[in-house]
Design brief:
Number of domains: 2
Number of strands: 25
CATH architecture of the largest domain: 3-Layer(bba) Sandwich
CATH superfamily of the largest domain: FAD/NAD(P)-binding domain
Helix content: 10-25%
Number of helices: 13
Radius of gyration: 24 Å
Length: 568
């Protein structure tokens, strides 16, 4: 018998396990995947090699009508540490307005001022301290040990375009460009498994089981009493005296809830699942960040392409193993920024910049050396929904992503793509990038005729070629005004076609078990599932609105708060 059973040893589950075990509770932690003890997980630069292996789930959405009828792919962690063992390690809290918006929508107690102590309690920042940062927490946060020349060039080019440098995206002001802090320590990934969970492994109060596919929450008399799972073809059950907490992520958590009889009554009845609690919004409110790649061709073979082969790979491996330094310490997404493209006073686009040409699951990147600028939509208006295909736990979910269904999302991504193309034209990047590959190949050619799409005019020359010599923007407002002039190579409809044909998720699914004070919300303000006693949800699925940035740090914060609720 255990006090608590935690389903999912990911970003949230490992945090919760540590805090409960430290408090003397008996905890069973169940994880569907294996351990995290492989080099490709621990080496920051090699995380993409884990996608598609036994240590990841790769979910596929239904074809999205507004995204050229394409299915979108969403890899999720399936190992100890979950997403924190698979992600790009960017440490980002989001914006103050995100959490204040939660509070204003009815989530009292979740304003930025009220969640900040949990962020600080989690954080061990190697450089930053003070009112907004923690230095003594389990989660290690550090500056990059390696900065690729293309990453440096992007940061300089964005400044040349009029945007200020920002050395702390989690500080007073998110807007600006710079280098991301990451959840790494001494050049190695600092997942919640390597930090939180490692601190209590071996203690008698903690039992960790890997390869455990949880199939059902055991519920009697309206109370969760345990879980059922399968491991290597054998069925198991375990009971919890206090609570069951589901931390399986925004895609797996609602699936397990519905399989257990908690969900929309009509949908469950159609599948022959016995209804235990009618939760109409279970699986609804699906949100994710979308980004669109802008590719530039390098003049010289200087990108990350080929660095994992031959003597170069050997040299990088020696540097990483012996010194914790060099290229393998890179999280690949080294640089980026936040931009207020709509001039509302709040950034609406984030850039993920990679010093290599990168595609997506199921889509190859352009060949050769280059740079990828990914403008990312921070506050999507589009919403989707997740449902079951059958009552079989082994069956896949049905995910209607709703991608680009809100016209405002397309407009924001268009502004982001235009901004990315403008930054590519600045001197710092133009010195290294000879041409644009997409949205249109050759658009940045240094000499001769440019490749022009059908319907374009020569008057649509890049802005920097039509402004007086010596022009430089004095402020970001002037740059944005310049963008409004639409002085680009491509007509608006061509750019929109690129957005719809290339938009991809950033693997930040959320919102499918919404928290709220209203009766329709799946969980209450202390993350307790409405209608069922002894059951909580603790992961990105409880977010009422998506955070403006990478979601791992907010999930850690949510888990810190959940532990606090459970222990007080």
């Amino acid at each position: 018998m255990f006090d608590h059973i935690i389903v999912g040893a990911g970003s949230a589950g490992c945090v919760l396990a540590m805090r409960l075990v430290e408090a003397g509770r008996r905890v069973l932690l169940l994880e569907a995947g294996p351990g995290d003890d492989i080099l490709f997980v621990r080496m920051p630069a090699t995380f993409v090699r884990v996608i598609g292996t036994e240590r990841s789930f790769v979910y596929e959405s239904e074809p999205a009508p507004e995204a050229d009828q394409r299915a979108l792919y969403i890899p999720q962690g399936r190992m100890l540490g979950g997403g924190s063992s698979l992600n790009a390690m960017v440490y980002m809290r989001g914006q103050k307005e995100d959490y204040d918006g939660w509070a204003a929508s009815g989530c009292e107690g979740w304003s930025f001022a009220e969640v900040l102590p949990a962020f600080k309690r989690a954080e061990a920042n190697e450089r930053l301290a003070g009112a907004l940062h923690g230095t003594q927490g389990p989660l290690r946060v550090s500056d990059p040990r390696y900065r690729h020349p293309l990453s440096l060039a992007f940061v300089r080019a964005a400044q040349q375009a009029g945007y200020r440098y920002n050395d702390d995206f989690n500080g007073e002001r998110q807007e600006g460009v710079g280098f991301y802090q990451t959840t790494t320590m001494e050049g190695r990934r600092a997942s919640t498994a390597a930090t939180y969970l490692a601190a209590v492994r071996g203690r008698p109060g903690l039992t960790v089981v890997t390869g455990a596919e949880v199939t059902r929450i055991l519920i009697e008399g309206g109370r969760a009493i345990g879980v059922a799972w399968r491991q290597k073809g054998t069925s198991h059950e375990a009971l919890a005296e206090r609570e069951v907490v589901v931390c399986a992520g925004a895609l797996a958590t609602p699936k397990l809830m519905m399989l257990s009889g908690i969900g929309p009554a009509a949908a469950l009845a159609s599948l022959g699942i016995t209804l235990l609690h009618d939760a109409p919004e279970m699986g609804a409110n699906y949100q994710d960040h979308l980004e669109v790649p802008v590719y530039g061709r390098a003049r010289q073979p200087l990108s990350l392409l080929g660095q994992d082969r031959g003597l170069r790979a050997l040299r990088h491996g020696v540097e990483w193993l012996g010194l914790g330094s060099g290229l393998l310490t890179s999280n690949v997404v080294e640089s980026g920024g936040f931009f207020d493209t709509a001039r509302t006073g709040r950034p609406d686009v984030q850039f993920h910049v990679l010093p290599v040409l990168v595609g997506d699951v199921g889509r190859e990147a352009p060949g050769g050396h280059g740079i990828t600028l990914n403008p990312c939509l921070l506050q999507p208006r589009s919403r989707g929904q997740l449902t079951l295909r059958s009552p079989d736990p082994a069956d896949t979910i049905k995910l209607d992503s709703g991608a680009l269904s809100a016209p405002e999302d397309v407009e924001t991504l268009l502004r982001g793509v235009k901004l990315a193309r403008q930054i590519l034209r600045q001197p710092a990047l133009a010195a290294l990038i000879e041409s644009e590959i997409a949205p249109v190949e050759g658009a940045l050619a240094g000499s001769g005729e440019e490749t022009m799409p059908a319907g374009s005019r020569r008057s649509d020359l890049p802005l920097d070629r039509r402004l007086p010599a010596g022009y430089s923007a004095a402020s970001s407002d002037e740059v944005l005004e310049a963008h409004v002039l639409e002085a680009h190579v491509l007509e608006a409809h061509v750019l929109e076609a690129h957005v719809r044909s290339h938009a991809k998720t950033v693997y930040h699914p959320s919102g499918t078990c919404r928290m709220g004070s209203d009766a329709q919300a799946v969980v209450d303000l202390k993350l307790r599932v409405r209608g069922i006693e002894g059951l909580r949800i603790c992961d990105a699925s409880v977010m009422p609105g998506l955070i403006s940035g990478n979601t791992n740090a907010p999930v850690v914060m949510i888990a810190e708060r959940c532990a606090e609720f459970m222990l007080t």
